[in-house]
Amino acid sequence: MTAECASMIDIHSAALESSVTRYHEFILRYSKERKVVYGFVEGKDDPSFYRGFIDGILPDGWEVELWPAGNKDKVFEIYHQINWRKFRKNRTCFFVDRDVSELVSEIIPKDRNIYVTASYSIENDVAKAEVCKRLLTEVFGFAYVDHAELDSVGQMFNNELEKFCKLLVPIMAWILLWKREGKKPCLNHIYMKDMFHFSPISGMPCIAQKTGVNVVEYIHEQCNITRNAQWDASTNEAFLRSASNYRKYARGKYIFWFLIEYCLSIHANSTTVFSALDEKL
Fold first, then answer.
1. What's the pTM value of the predicted model, to 2 decimals?
2. CB 152 within 8 A of CB 281
3. Distance of CA 98 to the CA centre of its chain
4. Does residue 269 surpass a pLDDT of 80?
5. How far apart are CA 173 and CA 235, in angstroms?
């Protein structure tokens, strides 16, 4: 493939992902007659998370159509483009992540059709013990497991998630510092698997930081940010460790990684895990 051809493909791909394209798709799809609620979300994975929540509150016979806009700014670009004299606000909604916006004085428009997540992102609301148990029974094939054992697995999940959120504090403290310094790091380049793993103890999956990994150096390298000697994230760390802020401001995609890896660890060590639980119950 020539460089010119590759460049044209990149341009075409960018156009498909632009907020303008999503806006025009919405205009073409919008119907006053159909029982449809329309919505815009940030990322390409977000529709699968939001759809379950929305379907649960829609009246019978209604459906939802969601478009990923690309990021929070693009979601709000579309919000401002729409002529609200022609379109109904109770039929067109916007869903964005809270992330650390309130900590960096980022202004988020307020309106009755704008939903901002309670925690960092929608993934935070998915990573729950009940969801963990459903994944284990419905996806990983543990439908035969006794309810008491599943309850114990769910309790272990909560305990390990608490530890994981605390392990994330230095990372989130630096992310907050970067944003306050006007940096725009690609946080998807920070891979949890490079820093953390589940290390079974007495048969139980326990989250731990990998030996020999300098978390602060790693995240700066991955996000291509030169560490300024004047920067000090200790104040941010202290804030995150207080009043359980480490839970509210833990990045959702990192929490979702924990959920999946926890279930995989249970699956990989199921014989040992459930044997150990049998002895306790």
1. 0.86
2. yes
3. 11
4. yes
5. 8
CB 22 within 8 A of CB 77: no
β-strand pairing of 207-209 with 196-198: antiparallel
Q: Is 182 left (phi over 0), alpha (psi -120 to 50) or beta?
A: left
Strand partners, 67: 40
Q: What is the pLDDT of residues 185-202, one digit of tens each?
A: 999 999 999 999 998 777
Long-range CB pairs of 93-96, under 8 A, 24+ apart, other chains included: 93/37, 93/38, 93/39, 93/40, 94/39, 94/40, 95/39, 95/40, 95/41, 95/42, 95/46, 95/50, 95/122, 96/41, 96/42, 96/72
Q: What is the average per-residue pLDDT within 37-61?
A: 90
Distance CA 59, CA 78 (A): 26
What average pLDDT does the segment 42-58 reach? 88
Closest CA to 155 of 208, 121, 210, 204: 204
pLDDT digits (tens, 9 = 90+) for 214-250: 999 999 999 999 998 899 999 999 999 998 899 999 9
What is the biggest distance separating any 2 CA atoms in the chain, rounded to whole angstroms?
A: 66
- What is the C-alpha to C-alpha distance for residues 98 and 78, in angstroms, rounded to an integer? 18
